[in-house]
Every structure is written in structure tokens, then in C-alpha cells.
Amino acid sequence: MTQQDWQQTTVDRVGEAVKALRGDRSAQWLSDVTDELGCRVGRSTISDIENGRRKYIAVHELILIAAALGTSPAVLLTFGSVPDGELELLPGRNTSGIDAADWIGGGRLNRFTPAAAGLPQDHEPSAQLIAAARERRRVNSALIETQLGGLTDYPDPALVPALKERLSGLISRIRELGGVIRDGGGDASG
């Protein structure tokens, strides 16, 4: 596949996703929702994307359209290939839809997929920051659910001290990696 073919295939995949996800609602409806989100993507632009007349999609358009449809840009970019369908992630580099979605969403590209062959390794500090931030979110959720006690079937409240310690360590690591932590840590360790 040539570079132009790859570019058009990527745009066409997004167009198919937009058309499918908006369903019976009009392109004007979608345009109006993007406007409500703060930046209108015009009806004619949406129509051109859906019908393959557009050769590119601007990043802001991708983000706005995804939000207006109640999904993520990764879903639009990998539409019809998750989990195991093949997707040409980069020109001449194929991977599964789920590996592509993970990578687009900030995860690491599976090193064992043909798409990763010969590519530079992940920028390690960035990869570590994303991983630590995701782990912080998981630990914080577990801490909240554990503190709710009888409202959930979550593990024993005796885990609270260990979860708080883990959360504190993650916050320190995120700061070391240059991450931004809200005042108070943005967590439930209170």
C-alpha cells in the first residue's frame, strides 16, 4: 500500500466509524454537538469525512467528533478491527486492532507485532509516566471502593493502609517523572 493509500484508508476508516456511530442522526446534529463542545466541525466536513472525499482529518476534528459521539479517538481510528482484526497502523506495518487502540491510547506498542519491527523503543520516561498514572487511577479506585465498606463486594478494609502506601509511592514516582498532580494528590487517601 502506498503512503497515499494508507492515508486515505485511515481517513476512510474514521469516516465509516462516524457514519456507523451517529446512526440515524444527521451530520447537522453531529456538527451541532461539536459546537456545543466548544468548536464546530461543519456539516459538510463531517459529510466529506464519511463519504471519503476528505484526504485528512485534523486532530481537533477527530477529538471533537469522538467526544460528540460518546467515544474516543482510538475507537474511530481502529473501527472495525478490535480486537483481532488486522489494521495497517503505519504504512506497511500491520497489527491487531486492540494493539493499535492501546498504542493510540498511550500504551506501549506490542514489540512482537510486525508494526513495531525496527521502530525506536518507547520513550521510557513517558511510558513510565503513563503506566504510573494508570496504576494510580486503579489503586485510587480500589481505595475508594474499599473505604465504602459494605456497599460493595470489594476486598477487606484492612487493605486501606497498604493501598494508601502504594498510592503515595505512585504519586512520588509520577512527580519524579515530571507528571502533574493536583493539590491534595487528587486521590482518596485523605
UniProtKB/TrEMBL annotation:
<dbReference type="Pfam" id="PF01381">
    <property type="entry name" value="HTH_3"/>
</dbReference>
<dbReference type="InterPro" id="IPR001387">
    <property type="entry name" value="Cro/C1-type_HTH"/>
</dbReference>
<protein>
    <submittedName>
        <fullName>Uncharacterized protein</fullName>
    </submittedName>
</protein>
<dbReference type="GO" id="GO:0003677">
    <property type="term" value="F:DNA binding"/>
</dbReference>
<dbReference type="InterPro" id="IPR010982">
    <property type="entry name" value="Lambda_DNA-bd_dom_sf"/>
</dbReference>
